[in-house]
């Protein structure tokens, strides 16, 4: 099977080049055997599937149904966020994001990737930009720790909720609002709150209008898990010193490269390859495994993007189904020592996706010592980044020799543009996957029932029936051991 299996990001229309390589050699039958890998006929059929999916995507985009794809070229919002950052850099030592899910995961992923890993513990002068905390859960101990760490008078709280009805975020907002009012006075609230919400509707927008609070809009039609390149992510990231201009440039390049033919198009191929591995090779799980501490939270962000978009109970025609490939997060090389045994010898139900860096932003050399010790001498004079990359390559080869398929997304070096390219490629691939599975990748009906039970238990008006329903279930619970 003569199949080209490396796709490089190149475009004559932009100076941004070579940002990402997709290597799927280890998905082929040549690498992992015909029972586990894709064959020539699979790639032939894939080309047609992807051509159709790309046409569907482009038609929807022309109709304005996929506005996330236009975010990278929204210079108006980028300019507003950079201005906010320039002003906020002088006013604040801390920025705290109050958000959950799509309002938090992308910001946390990009912040960890593009700012120094010790950003928040550096002194103010060396850091140069505010610290960034993402309060993405309502565990009282975790939230208390953030509040104790941040001086209210030197902190901007960025409240992010499109609907203004997110229970977790709104509870945090109410706590912060009252603490600001009591500690700094009602007028000071305006200086310490930034509201990112729907441009027209919702309780947060009403409060913005009534109290004159600083605010930024979440574009209509952009769901949370696709929103990181809007004000949702750009504002707090710019305040923390991330180069959002380059981030957006890389993402824009990914959109430009999406015009490429199917078999040289990374977003299309990522979607199509995983679709085939799921439907033809019975691999319902996708392990996303970055070999970089800085990229660890990209796997968290991808988990929501992939699982919430593709885990659906009905097809577009309304018929019932159980669709979805489960994304699982891992970290190399850490999880070679905790998860790899399962992937190597456990159920043959997983595809592994490695994310790698050809070159790390800093180098640490292993000293040339213990030359007389065979167990150590081979390490002498080598680099930690070199070792980590060889572990990634060696793990992929070991998996392949055991009939376990994998693919790899590799970027030359972690930059703002490269990360923007990677994230946008994965968002494009997610929507394409929706077309392949014949489901809606933009909704999330499966999470609503749990919210309704919570509303009922918390006493929200008009949800009394949910509390009654829960209590009836609880009254009949038999299998509890105290």
Describe the structure.
The chain is of the alpha/beta class and 482 residues long. The chain folds into three domains: 6-62 and 248-437, Rossmann fold; 68-244, Rossmann fold; 448-475, no CATH class. The chain is 46% helix and 14% strand. The chain has 19 helices and 13 strands. The protein has helices spanning 29-32, 40-62, 75-91, 105-114, 124-127, 140-149, 167-184, 189-192, 203-211, 231-239, 244-257, 266-279, 296-310, 340-345, 374-377, 384-401, 416-437, 448-458, 464-475, and strands at 6-8, 21-23, 94-98, 131-135, 155-160, 193-197, 214-217, 285-290, 312-314, 320-323, 326-329, 350-359, 406-413. Helix 13 packs parallel to helix 17 (416-437). The longest helix is centred in the N-terminal third of the chain and has 23 residues, at 40-62. It is globular, with a radius of gyration of 24 Å. The model is unreliable at 1-6 and 8-16 (pLDDT under 50).
């Amino acid at each position: 099977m003569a199949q080209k299996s490396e796709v490089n990001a190149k475009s004559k229309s932009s100076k941004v080049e070579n940002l990402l390589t997709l290597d799927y050699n280890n998905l082929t039958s040549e690498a992992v055997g015909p029972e586990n890998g894709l064959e020539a006929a699979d790639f032939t059929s894939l080309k047609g599937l992807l051509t159709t999916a790309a046409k569907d995507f482009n038609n929807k985009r022309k109709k304005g149904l996929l506005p996330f794809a236009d975010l990278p070229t929204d210079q108006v919002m980028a300019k507003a966020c950079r201005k906010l950052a320039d002003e906020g850099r002088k006013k604040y030592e801390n920025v705290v994001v109050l958000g959950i899910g799509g309002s938090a995961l992308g910001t946390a992923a990009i912040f960890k990737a593009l700012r120094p890993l010790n950003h928040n513990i550096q002194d103010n002068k060396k850091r140069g930009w505010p610290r960034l905390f993402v309060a993405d859960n309502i565990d009282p101990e975790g939230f208390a720790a953030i509040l104790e760490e941040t001086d209210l008078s030197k902190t901007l709280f960025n409240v992010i909720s499109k609907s203004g009805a997110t229970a977790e975020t709104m509870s945090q907002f109410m706590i912060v609002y009252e603490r600001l009012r009591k500690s700094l006075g009602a007028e000071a609230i305006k200086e310490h709150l930034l509201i990112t919400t729907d441009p027209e509707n919702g309780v947060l927008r009403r409060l913005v209008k009534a109290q004159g609070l600083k605010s930024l809009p979440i574009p209509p039609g952009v769901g949370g898990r696709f929103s990181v390149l809007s004000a949702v992510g750009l504002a707090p990231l710019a305040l923390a010193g991330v180069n959002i201009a380059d981030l957006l440039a890389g993402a824009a390049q990914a959109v430009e490269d999406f015009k490429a033919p199917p078999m040289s198009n990374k977003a299309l191929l990522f979607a199509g390859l995983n679709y085939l591995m799921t439907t033809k090779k019975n691999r319902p799980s996708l392990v996303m495994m970055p070999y970089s501490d800085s990229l660890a939270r990209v796997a968290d962000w991808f988990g929501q993007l992939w699982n919430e978009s593709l885990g659906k109970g009905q097809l577009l025609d309304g018929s019932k189904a159980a669709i979805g490939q489960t994304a699982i997060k891992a970290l190399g090389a850490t999880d070679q020592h905790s998860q790899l045994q399962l992937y190597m010898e456990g159920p043959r139900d997983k595809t592994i996706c490695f994310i790698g860096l050809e070159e790390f932003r800093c180098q640490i050399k292993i000293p040339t010592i213990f030359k007389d010790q065979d167990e150590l001498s081979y390490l002498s004079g080598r680099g930690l980044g070199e070792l980590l990359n060889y572990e990634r390559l060696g793990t992929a080869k070991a998996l392949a020799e055991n009939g376990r398929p994998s693919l790899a997304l590799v970027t030359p070096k972690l930059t703002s543009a490269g990360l923007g390219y990677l994230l946008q490629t994965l968002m494009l691939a997610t929507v394409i996957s929706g077309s392949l599975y014949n489901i809606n990748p933009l909704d999330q009906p499966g999470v609503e029932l749990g919210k309704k039970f919570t509303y009922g238990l918390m006493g929200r008006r008009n949800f009394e029936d949910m509390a009654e329903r829960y209590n009836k279930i609880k009254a009949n619970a038999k299998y509890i051991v105290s």
